[in-house]
Amino acid sequence: MQQLPWLEPGDALPDPASAWGEHDPVPGLLAAGGALDVDTLVHAYSHCVFPWFSEDQPILWWSPDPRMVLQVAEFKLHRSLRKTLARFTQTAGCEVRIDHDFASVITACSQSPRTGQSGTWIVPDMVEAYMALHRAGHAHSVETWIDGKLAGGLYCVGLGRAVFGESMFTRRPDASKIALAALVCLCRRFQVKMIDCQQNTSHLASLGAREMSRSRFVAHVARAREQQGPRWHFEPVYWAELLSARPSGPT
């Protein structure tokens, strides 16, 4: 078993290929320590590394192999969600906003209970770090608003055409799914090929996400981060990227 590198603030992250493998204690773990400043986070995401840790742990850096990704062309718009979107787009007071209230979105994500988890990985230091990343123009919120109230949403990191999903929350039925569908529409509109989902879950798989080798994902991000990114603003016409296509799969 290889020893886990310990980083001091300002130290460069190791090569993602050196992350612990399937025969190590925690597959995908790359390093511990370091800092959560904007430059370090941008460098990390540019090289397919992300932080994930609990409040009683040091900063832990991850680069899992394989990587769960959603190819936006393969997003499964099930009939039930199609009906939800059709109602949403035709109902007064229902809209999608981007970066209108990032702070409320990440705070809500940090407070949302997770199946099988007693706490949250979005600890106060992470909230502060991603708020700074948002102010620097690299972190974005996609928000579902109903009758002037924030009903659900998600936040992500965007570097050029490399988009990394982070977390979502909902206060109304399907509100987080509406936000994800809006992000898919935005990505399709601006030729963003995939959204990183980090870890494999049955929920993500049901929406069309699948695993990709780390080496292929690293190669994709290296290209995508250098390309002109999307305009982080949502227009209702973008819904046509999904709603003009035929339904996929059962309810």
Automatic annotation (TrEMBL):
<keyword id="KW-0012">Acyltransferase</keyword>
<comment type="function">
    <text>Functions in the N-end rule pathway of protein degradation where it conjugates Leu, Phe and, less efficiently, Met from aminoacyl-tRNAs to the N-termini of proteins containing an N-terminal arginine or lysine.</text>
</comment>
<dbReference type="GO" id="GO:0008914">
    <property type="term" value="F:leucyl-tRNA--protein transferase activity"/>
</dbReference>
<dbReference type="InterPro" id="IPR042221">
    <property type="entry name" value="Leu/Phe-tRNA_Trfase_N"/>
</dbReference>
<dbReference type="InterPro" id="IPR016181">
    <property type="entry name" value="Acyl_CoA_acyltransferase"/>
</dbReference>
<keyword id="KW-0808">Transferase</keyword>
<comment type="similarity">
    <text>Belongs to the L/F-transferase family.</text>
</comment>
<dbReference type="GO" id="GO:0005737">
    <property type="term" value="C:cytoplasm"/>
</dbReference>
<dbReference type="GO" id="GO:0030163">
    <property type="term" value="P:protein catabolic process"/>
</dbReference>
<keyword id="KW-0963">Cytoplasm</keyword>
<dbReference type="Pfam" id="PF03588">
    <property type="entry name" value="Leu_Phe_trans"/>
</dbReference>
<dbReference type="InterPro" id="IPR004616">
    <property type="entry name" value="Leu/Phe-tRNA_Trfase"/>
</dbReference>
<protein>
    <recommendedName>
        <fullName>Leucyl/phenylalanyl-tRNA--protein transferase</fullName>
        <ecNumber>2.3.2.6</ecNumber>
    </recommendedName>
</protein>
<dbReference type="InterPro" id="IPR042203">
    <property type="entry name" value="Leu/Phe-tRNA_Trfase_C"/>
</dbReference>
